[in-house]
Amino acid sequence: MDRVLITGGAGFIGSHLCARFLHEGCEVICIDNFSTGRPANIYPFRNHEGFQLITYDVTGYLHIKGPVSLVLHFASPASPKDFLEMPIQTLKVGSLGTHKALGLAKAKNAGFLLASTSEVYGDPEEHPQSESYTGRVDPVGLRGVYDEAKRFAEAMVMAYHRSHGIPTRIARIFNTYGPGMRVGDGRVLPNFFTQALRNEPLTIYGDGSHTRSFCYIDDLVEGLYRLCFTDYSEPVNLGNPEEISMLDLAREIIRITGSRSSLEFRELPEGDPVRRRPDIRLAMERLDWKPLVDRKTGLQKTLDYFRGNNGLNA
Length: 314
Ligand code: UDP
Description:
With 314 residues, the chain is of the alpha/beta class. Helix content is 38%, strand content 18%.
């Protein structure tokens, strides 16, 4: 693992991965077109001698000089607001971008890891969601652009694995949070934190009874890192199974920020999954991994970030 290429390396998760692989002594090539990634995310290691940034859209042909040992494909809009604003780019990066990234891995004899998502389960009838659940996705619904792109990406990865014998990994990533999230990306935690810190009403979509399960970024990165070193090619859920309703989350954020914000109920967006919680038994068995950071600690660290220069002032 000495030269690692990370597409979407300036994004929230991608930039944490860049930092981790640099820390492990690897060279890191980050490719990003900054459609949702941010220079601020890679600022801390921009001058690191092992770090190289290529500003490029990965749906185009990828030419990289020299060896590459591992390709991590993280480029994609990933928040509902972003992929609804960029539906075609989302479909292209999940399909054409995945194809190009796999082609590069094949040419370099490299390993490959796909950032997939809990969205492949759609609005699930099975709860919690295990890897064997095939999902309930509406291909023509608004979220279909992301869900189907990632489902296609998984199919493409498995085809390259089966046809070309590439050592591939698929991580199905559930809701993740922490420093590096973009203010204004429309996700629930950046919204709630921003609103609470400004004493504005917290916007709850629907009646607040819908749930998510939030994993702190450091736990996720550890899971992804371990997944790279297994020989397991089937999809693996990575997330924190601790589930919370959006109403309880809003109250928690108001409490920890000491905000005077009220709650404002808005219409639930189309296709918004009602419940989401990962079954992580496979990751526990295969990776000897489980999340270690509890929500209280994780939210406090995230609050510090949103309060500081990298968050609200970025
Ligand atoms: N949500 C909310 N208020 C907001 C933003 C999001 O109630 O200001 C809800 C949203 O409807 C969803 C959940 O929070 O049920 C998580 O949404 P997010 O956009 O963070 O990601 P998702 O898990 O839907 O991909």
